[in-house]
Amino acid sequence: MSSDRKQIAWGMIDQGLSSATNFGASVLAARTLTTSEFGGFAVSFSVYLIVLGFSRSWSSEPLVVRYASASPDAQYRAIRRGATTSIAVGLIGFVVVASVALMLRSSIGAVLLVLALFLPALVLQDFCRYALIVQRRSRDAALNDLVWLIVLIGAFAMARALHATATVALVCWALGALVGSVMGLLQLRCLPSSKLAQWVRSNSDLSWRYSGEFILLSGTAMLLTVGLAAFNGVRDAAGFRGVQVILGPLGVLFMGTTMQMTPILARRLHAGGDRFSGAVRRVSATLGSVAAVWGVTLLLVPTRLGEAMLGSSWAATRQLLPIWIAYYVAGGLVLGPAIGLRAKGAATVSLRVRVLVAPVALGLGLLGALIGGPRGASIGLLIGNLVAVPLWWRAFTMEASTVEPSVSTV
Fold first, then answer.
1. Which residues contact 47 (CB under 8 A, 6 or more apart)?
2. Of 6, 109, 299, 313, whose CB count within 10 A is highest?
3. For 404, which DSSP code?
4. Is the separation of the CB atoms in 248 and 91 below 8 Å?
């Protein structure tokens, strides 16, 4: 097996373990919490994903795009500075989320306050995974996520004697990230660097655009989850989150493919346009097919099994499944050209596509949330993804022979 294939194989194992931590925590929370409490857990999880998106935009993604082909010494320096950036984003998230939590003075506020305390560790653990993959150490990244899973299971086992609340469930999940963040720094054999400003300045051209992409489209589903809670209450947020949980493995697969294929394609870019474009097409075809098969399988799940996984949230989740299956199939078809543009460092082009399609998804999603609750929001997101497919492929085709890779060696 070639080196790249080994990395991809271990990367998929890593993503399976990462999925187990997020999916497993959500399933355990859904089974042990009331619908309202699970709604609170769903809101906090969505807030975490928003902070994580910004952390990746300013730390992980510039590292992957610009340092996948750099020398080991340059990679090491970049990893130290990127780790500092991820911690800084986590601390900013702590201040913002904690401030909001203290103003809410409710059960959701208490959950958000606990989340705020763990945010620096949560985003640092994620950055360490990216850094290990850039170093072609996907097996070590998988080990890190395995430790998180073990801590999660142990924490939930010990917490069974306590009264199950959203706060307890969140702590059980986040403790593993705290351990994983420390372990990640030990695996990388580095401490955060003091040259935060230098990293931010040198990568701001990519980071601002990646942040914009995340806000415009990638964060739309998360923001709509929070919006549903505000418009219709946490019960609707629980149903909206439930369908994301049951399809969560696909989301993790998509993220894992992006993590693994971006540095691989960045290193292979000079091998030739036909080979590069062919790999991009295979990524989209594979992900779209996997999404369709997974979705059809879920539609055949008996009600008893669905309730065993998601408890009382299953009924609302089942109604949204067909829409979200189509959403993920379209998302898989989009991901190939999106990864290709990232490997080329074409952040301006990808941001331009996001600007075109995001208003459709977010506008119709929010309108649908007001009129039709979770179903209306889901339809809005689906329309956005369907519009995105031809636009992404057109943008990639136009850039395939004109954009040079963005690689740093210092």
1. 97, 112, 115, 222, 226
2. 313
3. P
4. no
Write the burial class of residue 106 (CB in 10 Å: 0-12 exposed, 13-18 middle, 19+ buried): exposed
404 lies in some domain: no
Domain for residue 407, yes or no? Answer: no
Q: Please give the structure tokens belonging to residue 384.
A: 């956005």
With the C-alpha atoms ordered 163, 168, 172, 178, is the resulting torsion angle positive or negative? negative
Instruction: Please give the Cα distance from 151 to 396 (Å, whole number).
Output: 42
Would you call 410 helix, strand, or coil by DSSP? coil
Per the structure, the count of domains in the chain is: 1
Report yes or no on 405 lying in a domain: no
In terms of Cα–Cα distance, which of 29, 20, 31, 128 is closest to 82? 128
Q: Which H or E run includes 28?
A: helix 3-32
Is 409 part of a structural domain of the chain?
no
The one-letter amino acid at 274: D
Q: If phi over 0 gives left and psi between -120 and 50 gives alpha, with beta otherwise, what is residue 272?
A: left
Q: Is the pLDDT of residue 406 over 60?
A: no
As given in the structure block, the two tokens for residue 175 are 């403790």
Distance, CA of 295 to CA of 297 (rounded, Å): 5
The end-to-end CA distance of the chain, in Å, is 32
Q: Is 13 helix (H, G, I), strand (E, B) or coil?
A: helix
Q: CB–CB of 76/187 below 8 Å?
A: no
Look-up of token digits 């990893």: 79
CA 267 to chain centre: 23
**Residue ranges making up the domain that contains 331:** 3-399
Dihedral angle computed from the Cα positions of residues 163, 164, 169 and 172, in that order, rounded to the nearest 10 degrees: 40
Sequence-distant (≥ 6) Cβ neighbours of residue 394 within 8 angstroms: none
Query: What beta strand segments (E) does 96-229 contain?
Result: none
Least confident range from 62-66, 81-85, 302-306: namely 302-306
Q: Provide the residue count of the chain.
A: 410
| Interval 12-59: pLDDT, tens | 788 778 877 877 777 777 766 666 677 777 778 878 988 998 999 999
* Nearest-angstrom CA–CA distance, 119 and 103: 19
**This model's pTM is above 0.85:** no
